[in-house]
Amino acid sequence: MKGNKNIQENNRCDMNSYGDHKKKKSDVQQQASKISKSFDQASSEAENNNANDDDSFYDWNKNGNLEKTNIDRVKSDIPQTRMIHAQIENEEEGEETKTPEDEDKQRNKMFQQYEMRKEEPSLVSEYVVGSSPKDESSSEQSIEEKIKEASSQHERNIRNVNLEVNNNQNLNINQNIESSKYIYSSEIQAHIRMKEQELKKTISLNIIVIGKTGIGKSTFIEAFLNEKFEKLNNEIRPTTIDIIEKKAVRKENGITLNLNMIDTPGYDADTQIAQWQQKIIGYITSKFEKFKQVKKEQDNKDASKQQEIQDQRVHGCLYFLCGPRINKVDLDNLKKLQEYVSIIPILARGDSYTPEEVKQYKKQLRNDADQNKIFFFDPQEVFQDQPEKLNKLLKSPFGSVPPFLIISSIKQIQKSENQVFYGREYKWGICDIKNPEHSDFMLLYTSLIGYFSTKLIKLADVYQNSYFNQKKKQQKIKEKENKIEKGILFAGLFSAAAAYIYTKFQKN
Ligand SMILES: Nc1nc2c(ncn2[C@@H]2O[C@H](COP(=O)(O)OP(=O)(O)OP(=O)(O)O)[C@@H](O)[C@H]2O)c(=O)[nH]1
Ligand SMILES: [Mg+2]
């Protein structure tokens, strides 16, 4: 009971800060247009304002179930309970009220357990490559054996794949960045290599991030791109008022991935949704137009003079949703967007929910989409011939993905001199947003840049073709309408002239 109360209080806090954020957005927009004040100033002015969250939820029938695979893991299978939820669960089991000292002790204990777990490289890589810690085939293996097996597999992959990587020096800005512990398991590296060979070019992956205001899009992008957990000055973020591209290059062992995350302004109750949709869709289609034009120019050149085209089309959309259901505006947005881009749903602000709520909401979001004929990107397409791989690689302790459960933060938490991460602190614990036991953040990362990337890029061709076919059809319809209009005009003129001649003739 007390646990639930804590969560509700947390949610209330959350909604207040979300309300503040919405208010800040309108204040900032007004002030920006009137007196061009800086965003920081404007946000601080708006800091004490409150506004209500006025989401309306969509009405639906409670039948049908989209979940095709059941890869939920029972709680007992999880080697260490998630720290972020540990306190809540204890409290739900009726533990005594704790003093601040007790809470500190518990927090430190949880931190120690977590740190110990982080030190075990094989366990981290198990999560990244998706094999269960209780996987039957590997349960007998020692940690050393697992590492040995992973590195020999890695070497085999490297030997098998002969890469031609285009080392574009201009893009090579992050060359010296040490990659995070969670990033680039051997399997993912090999996967990207194979993708590069398949595509015969450096991978460009452009992902647009969409959702209502204050849901955490910009924070997510910063955390997603910043592998070094750098201290950022803008922990209190201004609202986003335009579409902004944020780029990073992932480069490891000669592999180049140009990652472009596209931040967008969120919508709120005051937004003209039609205009907002037009802006987002206009951005996506302008990239199709540009790509087509550049490709045409290249095709007209001699083969020897042709250059590789940098693909700037939007390959995927991370659509940020919150539980428990998809609201009307999001449903409408999703219906329109799915005509232009592959959509991967995100259950955002994951720290607002209990583990049970997370699983339930994920299911509900999928059902709502299904009922409303919204088709999310389906990972089964990636692993068509190997369904067992899908279950193995996309395993989350928080129920099937997508939707991916995401907690975002750019608050740097310094545990020791060498240990730093982006996280959120609560009175019951600390959350490391990239810890696979706290959210699906890293599972999303590895899925996006690894498993899903080629499929997303290929699907962009399908969406592009469909866009141009649709455009052609509309042009034809317009031409027909023009012809009919001209015909009517001509017929009108003709009958007017005939009537005139007839009356003249009658008079004479
Ligand atoms: N509790 C919690 N707060 C979050 C989370 N993600 C972001 N926030 C906070 O929510 C506030 C708004 O975050 P932003 O990233 O600016 O939200 P946004 O979606 O970009 O908002 P707009 O730019 O207005 O569309 C900030 O104070 C963040 O620190 C999260 O996962 N959990
Ligand atoms: Mg933003």
TrEMBL record:
Sequence segments annotated as region (Disordered): 1-106, 129-155
Polar residues: bias regions: 1-14, 28-41
Alphabetical UniProt keywords: GTP-binding, Nucleotide-binding
Protein name: Septin protein
InterPro entries: G_SEPTIN_dom, P-loop_NTPase
Listed Basic and acidic residues bias regions: 96-106, 133-155
Lineage start: Eukaryota, Sar, Alveolata, Ciliophora, Intramacronucleata
Compositionally biased residues, Low complexity: 42-51
Domain Septin-type G as annotated: residue spans: 201-475
Gene Ontology molecular function terms on file: GTP binding
Record's keyword annotation contains Nucleotide-binding: yes
Protein family according to the UniProt entry: Belongs to the TRAFAC class TrmE-Era-EngA-EngB-Septin-like GTPase superfamily. Septin GTPase family.
Pfam families, sorted: Septin (PF00735)
Gene3D superfamilies associated with the record: P-loop containing nucleotide triphosphate hydrolases (3.40.50.300)
